[in-house]
Amino acid sequence: MSVQPSETDETYTVEPKTLRSALPQTPTVAESESSSTAPPSYRSLALHDSQVDVDAYPTEDGLLVVDIENGASKIVNALAAELLLPDGEETPPPDQPSPPAPPLNVVIQIVGSRGDVQPFVALGQVLKANYGHRVRIATHPTFKKFVEDHGLEFFSITGDPAQMMDFMVKNPGLMPKFKTLREGEIGRRRKAIFEIVEACWRSCIEPSDSSSDSDQDDDTTRRPFIADAIIANPPSFAHIHCAERLGIPIHMMFT
After folding, report:
1. Quick one: 73 and 140 in the same domain?
2. Is 79 found in the same domain as 111?
3. Which of 251, 213, 233, 244 is nearest to 106 (CA)?
4. Does 220 lie in the same domain as 121?
5. What are 163-199's pLDDT values in tens digits?
C-alpha cells in the first residue's frame, strides 16, 4: 500500500511484514547556517521481520494511521536505536543493569470484599520487599489485622463491605428501588461514600491513620507521608481526583 501526501513529498510504502518510517535527520552545521528555517531532511528506516505485522492507511484529514498488530517491541527497539542515542554515543551492553528505582510512597486504595483486598496485599509485599517502597493499604477497618499481619501499613477509609454488598444485592440495577428510597438508604449511602472519599484523600497526605489505633507504632508510621503514586480499584471513587490534585501517576485495576 502506498501513501502520497503531495507531489513534492516522498512516497512511503508499507509492505507486508515490513515497516517503513520516516525519521528526521539532524542537519549539519553548514545547513543550519545557510537556512535556519529549513526543515530537517528525512530518511527511511526499514525493518524486515516475519513476525512484524503492520498496516497503514490515510485518513480524510491527511493523517497516516499505522496499525501494529505484532512485533511492537521490535519496532520500538529499532526506533530507539535511531532516535534516543546522540551521535557518537555507543549503545550500552544489553546485560548492563538498570539503576534501582528510588523509594516511593505508594498508597493502594481498595473498596470491596476480602477478595478485592488480598491481591493488592500481595502486590504491596512485592513493592516493599523487592523495591524498597513504603506501601500503605487504604481500605476498610475490617481488614486492618489482615493487612498488618502481612507487614504492610494500614489506613482506614471507613465503610462496611458487608453493608455495601447488601445494598448492591438489593439494588442490582442502575436505579435504586422505590423501597430503598422510602427507607432512606440513599442518604445513608451518600454519607458513607463521602466518608470514604474524604478518608482516601487523607490516606495520600497524612503520616498515619489517626482514626484507628494501629499496632504498627514505629518510625515508619510517624514519618511524613505524601503519596508519590496511587494504585486503586475503581470503586474506591477518590483515586483519580487525588492523583489529579497531587499531580502523581495512578494505576487502576480490578482483581
Report:
1. no
2. no
3. 251
4. yes
5. 888 888 887 877 888 788 788 888 888 899 999 999 9
Distances in whole angstroms, Cα of residue 77 to Cα of each of 89, 94, 160, 167, 254 = 16, 12, 49, 50, 31
What are the distances in angstroms from CA 55 to CA 6, 43, 45, 190, 213? 21, 20, 16, 49, 59
Report pTM. 0.60
Q: What domain range is 151 assigned to?
A: 105-252
Residue 96 lies in a domain: no
What's the Cα-to-Cα distance from 208 to each of 19, 165, 251, rounded to whole Å? Answer: 53, 28, 22
| 19 confidence band (pLDDT: 50, 70, 90) | very low
The pLDDT tens digits for 206-234 are 998 876 555 555 666 678 999 999 999 99
What's the structural domain count of the chain? 2
Contact 52, 75 (CB under 8 A): yes
Q: Give 138's strand partners.
A: 109, 155
